[in-house]
Amino acid sequence: MTLTLPPRVSARAFARLAEIAEDTGEVKALRVAVDGGGCSGFQYDIRFDEPAQDDLILEENGHKVLIDPVSLPFLENAVIDYTEELIGARFVIENPNASSSCGCGISFSM
After folding, report:
1. In the chain, what are the domain boundaries?
2. How far apart are CA 50 and CA 103, in angstroms?
3. CB 32 within 8 A of CB 67
4. What gap in Å lies between CA 7 and CA 67, rounded to an integer?
């Protein structure tokens, strides 16, 4: 039996949110959602947003990551991280629930 846990946000992702807040002068929450579509069936929607009443809020030092209740089951045990690679820097999802994903890392299937 696999233990069901909410998603976790890496220290690197929270550090990047802190850098963005410092650069822009405003603290914005990062929303991580799952939508239907994409080349593999589902796709991640990662953007800055305002908290909604029913969001799961993962918070560290005043920086927040928001997950809506519809997306939460798709993100169980996932890690929200930030990576800097040759192709660019971005927030990424390490999702153990995804059976496959496309090359862009935004689309996945279960």
Report:
1. 8-109
2. 30
3. yes
4. 9
Amino acid, single-letter form, for residue 93: I
Contact 33, 67 (CB under 8 A): yes
Strand partners, 45: 33
d(CA 44, CA 23): 25
What's the CATH architecture for 8-109?
A: Sandwich (2.60)
Reported in sequence order, the residue ranges of 2-104 that DSSP labels E, i.e. its strands, are 8-9, 29-36, 42-49, 56-60, 63-67, 79-85, 88-94, 100-101
Q: What is the pLDDT of residues 2-31, one digit of tens each?
A: 556 889 999 999 999 999 999 999 999 999
Distance CA 24, CA 22 (A): 6
Whole-prediction pTM: 0.83
